[in-house]
Amino acid sequence: MRALACAAAVVCAIAPLRAAAHEILHQVQRGRALAVRAFFQDGQALADQQAEVYSPADPKIPYWRGRTDRNGWLAFVPDVPGKWRVRVVDATGHGLDTQVDVEPAIGGPDSGAPSGAGPLGLALRPVVGAAVIAAIFGGLYLWRRRRSA
Questions:
Q1: pLDDT tens per residue, range 26-58
Q2: How many whole angstroms separate alpha carbon 29 and alpha carbon 110?
Q3: β-strands 62-67, 95-102: how paired?
């Protein structure tokens, strides 16, 4: 009877460890695209699994659909800021269903916007273009005037 109680205690102590091995974790890398890696707690990737990404603009229809790579990564380029839903599910039903926040682009080096594309930079482009054209024609006028004198 005592041996049975010890065996039951060992099984109860080990059971949570096996359940924790099924927990799905993720990591996010940000840049021009958003990359999400899905993996088990022990580090094993959810490789070659069905994945879907839903935009905050239309949360019912997948924005992107595909498979994770051999390391559990998927990547997409968000077109609007907000909370994007990422789903990765394997055949046994284990998977990841999480939300990733996407900040609005401010024109920084990783935003994908050309440098100087802020409101002032865009307003100055025609002025700078006109100044360059005026300088070219002014130089040609002075050169021709000097040559004929």
A1: 777 777 789 999 988 888 899 999 999 999 999
A2: 12
A3: unpaired
Helix (H/G/I), strand (E/B), else coil: 97 = strand
Starting at the edge strand that comes first in sequence, how are the strands of the sheet with 62-67 ordered?
A: 62-67, 50-54, 82-89, 95-102
Look up the pTM and report it: 0.55
**H helix or E strand, kind and range, residue 30:** strand 24-30
For the segment 91-95, the average pLDDT, to the nearest whole number, is: 84
What is the distance in angstroms between the CA of the first residue and the CA of the last residue of the chain?
Answer: 121
Q: What is the CA radius of gyration of the chain?
A: 29
Gap between the Cα atoms of 71 and 88, Å rounded: 13
Q: Give me 134's structure tokens.
A: 């005026």
Please choose, from the candidates 75, 76, 84, the residue with its C-alpha nearest in 3D space to the C-alpha of residue 103: 84
Cα-Cα-Cα-Cα dihedral sign, residues 143, 144, 145, 149: positive
> Strand, helix or coil at 26?
strand
